[in-house]
Amino acid sequence: MSILDLAGANQATISFLTGYGHRLFSDDFMHQLDECFGEGDFYANQANPLMSGKFLDTALGFGDGLFDGALVWDTLQFLANPLLQTVVNKLHRVLRPGSSMLAFFHAEERVETIPTYSYRIGDHRTILLQGRGRRRPAQFFNNRSLEKMFQDFESVKFFLTRDHLREVIVRR
């Protein structure tokens, strides 16, 4: 299988997934966001078509139906509309039918900033998190807004963790 990991390349995840015979494509999505939109107002910059086009080409310039799965982690909660929906549509296109995608969304509504992490798969039971500081999310996502965002996908399942994260598994 071909897996897209948006947490950036790290040895733990590479070893885990390639140990099962899968191919891994890694990119640090948050780094790409900062590179493209970091100067000035981060969220206002995402509405700039030139900046957004450069970001999409750099971060998600993959062919259609290339991946059997995607590890999106917590990256989508830092995208403002309409870039958010464009990225979700692009993820839909790069995933093969029947594939799955994992994403996390912070579940607390009334917070100014949320912790961000770099994710690593330790083993079949363990995800290792390395803190990357705090950020202001673009918006709050409840179950209904997530269902609407992923409406073109076959199914969306939600799980609330004890760490106030909404774990979302989306099936293409």
Explain what the structure shows.
There is one protein chain. The protein is an alpha/beta fold and 172 residues long. It has a single domain, classed as Rossmann fold. A 6-stranded mixed beta sheet has the order 2-1-3-4-8-7, with helices on both faces. It is globular and about 40 Å long. The two termini are 15 Å apart. The mean pLDDT is 94.
User: Mean pLDDT, as a whole number?
Assistant: 94
**Helix-and-strand structural type:** alpha/beta
User: What portion of the residues fall into strands of 2 or more residues?
Assistant: 25-35%
Low-confidence stretches: none
Number of domains: 1
CATH architectural category = 3-Layer(aba) Sandwich
Order of helices and strands: EHEHHHEHEEEHEE
In short:
The protein has 172 residues and is an alpha/beta fold.
Features:
6-stranded mixed β-sheet, 172 residues, alpha/beta, Rossmann fold, globular, 6 helices, two-stranded antiparallel sheet, single chain
Question: Which helices and strands occur, and which strands form pairs?
Answer:
Layout: E1 2-5, H1 11-19, E2 23-26, H2 29-37, H3 42-45, H4 49-59, E3 67-73, H5 83-94, E4 95-106, E5 114-123, E6 126-135, H6 143-149, E7 155-160, E8 165-171
Parallel strand pairs: 1-2, 1-3, 3-4
Antiparallel strand pairs: 4-8, 5-6, 7-8
Helix pairs in contact: 2-4
